[in-house]
Specification:
Blueprint (H helix, E strand, L loop, with lengths): L9 E5 L2 E5 L3 H10 L3 H4 L4 E5 L6 E7 L2 E7 L3 E2 L2 E5 L5 H12 L10 E5 L4 E5 L6 E2 H6 L5 H18 L10 H16 L6 H14 L5 E3 L8 E3 L4 E3 L6 E3 L1 H19 L2 H19 L5 H24 L11 H15 L1
Antiparallel strand pairs: 1-2, 3-4, 4-5, 5-9, 6-7, 8-9, 10-12, 11-14, 12-13
Helix pairs in contact: 5-9, 8-9, 8-10, 8-11, 10-11
């Protein structure tokens, strides 16, 4: 890749301050050279922007030493520039990487190789070569029971190892504020088609606000789960926070059920969800009593319904607009039944 070795910093005005971000592979390449990151990742650099995420600037970097990712948090949501963000909160995600790195099995989490707080960015290794996103598997109607069982045990490891530990990503009230904001956006503010389902979902959220907390992933979406030959990997830790295990479990189940409805493979989705629920419950017996585990399973059903509604009706979700009204109607009926 032949470009100038200097880079031009784009500036975005927010709250009276200038923020700098890189919005092209060329600028990222120059940044890597100027900050000697190539000495860590390799010099034969090839860069491509990742278009899947709607919030951050993410680039895939290929070198002779392997694959890497650069993630930069701009002062706005990438797909909605009118919505401001706090770039410095990238520190919270880096903290989440440090915490999860001490909990998860080797090979299931990318490794941080470069951190730049001033530019609100970091570079990680690829989890492993030959990886496949769970979202791609589901879209191809591949509902691997074996992968579901392994994934369930990984989730239980996160929840169980941090249950009632007091471990937090953010300091003081910022953690509770993050919790409140997530549940407001993902549950309470949704345009529910049934008032009864809305009341039930909010009731569960309010009750869980005072329950024992684990660290939860917060975005346990199939697009963030990587199925590899040796292990299952997890990426995108931006929403890790002290929350309820039921939310993580339900969020994942809702995404799987949603894909089953969209592809006409509801039988495969149901079987995978049942496997994840049963394997998760067995793995959690190491950390909690059966009453707690049963309550998590029950609450997860409610959250699976809210996650389906969120993916179908939330204004910031781009996929919802392309599913079509017929598919959306089927999803909403199924989701409301789950909640009720």
């Amino acid at each position: 890749m032949t470009i100038e070795t200097r880079y031009y910093k784009n500036r975005h005005m927010s709250a009276g301050e200038h923020h700098e971000y890189f919005d092209s592979p060329e600028l990222v390449h120059s940044y890597l050279l100027d900050h000697s990151v190539d000495s860590v990742i390799g010099s034969d650099i090839h860069i491509a922007e990742q278009t899947g995420g709607f919030a951050n600037l993410v680039y895939k970097i290929e070198t002779e030493r392997g694959g890497f990712y650069l993630k930069q948090r701009p002062p706005f949501i990438k797909s909605r520039p009118e919505i401001p963000r706090v770039p410095e909160e990238v520190r919270d995600e880096i903290r989440a990487y440090e915490i999860f790195g001490a909990i998860l099995p080797e090979g299931s989490l990318p490794q941080l190789v470069h951190v730049d707080y001033d530019q609100s960015l970091f570079v990680t290794t690829e989890v492993q070569r030959g990886d496949t996103l769970l979202s791609h598997k589901l879209a191809a109607s591949d509902y691997s029971i074996e992968s579901g069982a392994t994934l369930a045990r990984l989730i239980a490891c996160i929840h169980g190892e941090t249950l009632n530990s007091g471990i937090a990503v953010r300091e003081g009230e910022r953690e509770q504020m993050f919790y409140d904001r997530q549940y407001q956006w993902l549950v309470k503010d949704l345009p529910y088609t049934e008032e009864g389902a809305h009341s039930k979902a909010v009731e569960v959220v309010e009750r869980l606000a005072a329950s024992p907390k684990s660290l939860i992933w917060g975005d346990l979406s199939p697009k963030n789960i990587i199925l590899g030959r040796a292990a299952i990997g997890v990426v995108d830790l931006e929403t890790v926070h002290q929350g309820d295990p039921a939310f993580d479990l339900g969020y994942l189940m809702g995404h799987i059920l949603l894909e089953g409805i969209k592809t006409g493979r509801q039988d495969g989705a149901d079987a995978l969800v049942r496997t994840i629920g049963s394997e998760y419950g067995m793995a959690m017996t190491k950390y909690a009593d059966q009453g707690f585990i049963d309550q998590v399973a029950e609450d997860a059903i409610v959250f699976s319904g809210t996650s389906m509604i969120h993916r179908t009706l939330a204004s910031l979700v781009p996929e919802a607009k392309s599913q079509g009204s017929e598919v959306n109607d089927r999803i909403l009926v199924y989701a409301n039944n789950l909640i009720n």
